[in-house]
User: Which sequence fits this backbone?
């Protein structure tokens, strides 16, 4: 296979050199971190007072982990390392309400991020001759603008179509000869079903490849999309805390995602013992971003479950590969690509006086999309034979939930005491989506 490299020197850097590079950048990252209120405190408690306290890569382990909880506690400016006037953009984690996780970018941060995304895109064989339709949500979510800038950097013609509205997507594909797509895997499947429904012939389009990410999906799903749309699908992994897309990506071998080790230090730990696991074993991914000046984050517990693939990749890149990410070690749900915590649902409904003491979150597949049903008990006072007030209540709960989690759920009302109760910890989530990962 003929591989192409955006930055061959860095992508094929010998491991020894890569480690020297990482150590230098880690010292810088610690220096930058010490300018933030959060790390000034956290690192000094760990006995790290200056970048000089980091002497080898092993010293990384002296740095305490950072969690999502820390980021929320630090909202809004606890992690900011530059004067506000140096910030040119912010992004936030999807689905977070209340106290969001916000990441600030300086001009150099944006350009470094853009070049990582460009590296990923170019490595799949794209060139400036390609037409790139970015079918993902724009806005605070990093997937939109991240891929948009990366695509432009490669020189492709970028169509900022955003997600949704398949009829319009097909028109754009046809009118402009789209060759490359970016979307969640579930939206790609949805696009394919709609294509059949609307009689859009695959041969009338010029599609060659797609980047699919933002949610876990199986190898079978990848193959299904590839076969149905006659394209190559590449797995794209990223998270807003680490810029967004461009953290790890598949090369044309399509066997594991290269994690860009000139930009990140990756560790895999056992989420229970917090100890590192052996190569090849699965665990939780912990990431340190090496070159970000506005929002440094050290040893971030991503909660994402994966592992290092042993052995080198035939593409010649020296940066290690991660296995396909299979899920998360916490209870965050990913519903059609949007992150939802069960606690958000609880917070929204339990504040309503008509709602009873028990509720259940059910997730199913409706075709290729996820369907969320929230079953709640209602207080005996509110539960009556007349269906009109009950329907109004149902609609009220639906609206409140949609405002909180940005997903339109089905709502079912149940008589008080009729939903199952478990001994010990309550089981709130019934995830009936097939686990084919
Ligand atoms: P956000 O910060 O809103 O962009 O969400 C990031 C999260 O989405 C990650 O921590 C993962 O849990 C999930 N995610 C992103 N890309 C992938 C992928 N390719 N495979 C599995 N999960 C993914
Ligand atoms: Zn490779």
Assistant:
């Amino acid at each position: 296979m003929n591989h192409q490299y955006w930055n061959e020197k860095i992508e094929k850097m010998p491991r020894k050199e890569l480690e020297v590079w990482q150590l230098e950048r880690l010292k810088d990252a610690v220096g930058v971190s010490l300018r933030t209120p959060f790390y000034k405190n956290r690192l000094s408690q760990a006995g790290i007072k200056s970048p000089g306290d980091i002497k080898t890569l092993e010293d990384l382990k002296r740095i305490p982990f950072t969690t999502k909880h820390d980021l929320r506690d630090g909202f809004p400016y606890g992690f900011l390392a530059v004067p506000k006037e140096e910030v040119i953009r912010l992004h936030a984690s999807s689905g977070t309400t209340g106290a969001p996780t916000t990441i600030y970018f300086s001009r150099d941060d944006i350009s470094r991020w853009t070049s990582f995304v460009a590296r990923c895109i170019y490595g799949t064989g794209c060139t400036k001759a390609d037409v790139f339709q970015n079918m993902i949500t724009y806005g605070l979510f990093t997937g939109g603008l991240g891929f948009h800038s990366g695509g432009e950097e490669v020189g492709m013609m970028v169509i900022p179509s955003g997600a949704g509205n398949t009829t319009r997507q097909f028109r754009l594909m046809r009118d402009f000869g789209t060759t490359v797509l970016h979307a969640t895997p579930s939206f790609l499947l949805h696009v394919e079903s709609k294509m059949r429904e609307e009689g859009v012939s695959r041969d009338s389009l010029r599609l060659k490849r797609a980047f699919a990410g933002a949610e876990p999906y199986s190898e079978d799903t990848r193959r299904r999309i590839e076969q149905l749309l006659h394209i190559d699908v590449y797995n794209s992994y990223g998270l807003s805390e680490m810029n967004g897309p461009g953290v790890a990506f598949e090369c044309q071998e399509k066997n594991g995602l290269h994690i860009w080790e000139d930009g990140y230090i990756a560790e895999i730990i056992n989420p229970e013992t917090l100890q590192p696991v052996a190569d090849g074993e699965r665990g939780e991914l912990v990431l340190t971003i090496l070159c970000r000046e506005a929002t440094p984050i050290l040893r971030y517990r991503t909660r994402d479950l994966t592992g290092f693939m042993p052995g080198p990749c035939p593409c010649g890149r020296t940066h290690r590969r991660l296995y396909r990410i299979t899920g998360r070690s916490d209870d965050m749900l990913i519903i059609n690509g949007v992150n939802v915590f069960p606690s958000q649902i609880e917070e929204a409904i339990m504040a309503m006086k008509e709602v009873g003491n028990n509720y259940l979150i059910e997730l199913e597949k409706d075709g290729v999309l996820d369907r969320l049903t929230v079953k709640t008990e209602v207080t005996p006072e509110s539960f009556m034979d007349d269906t009109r007030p009950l329907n109004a209540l149902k609609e009220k709960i639906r609206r409140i939930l949609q405002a909180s989690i940005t997903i339109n759920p089905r709502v079912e009302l149940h008589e008080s005491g009729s939903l199952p109760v478990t001994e010990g910890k309550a089981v709130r989530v019934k995830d009936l989506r097939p686990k084919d990962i």
Observations:
- The CA atoms of residues 220 and 436 lie 8 Å apart.
- The mean pLDDT is 92.
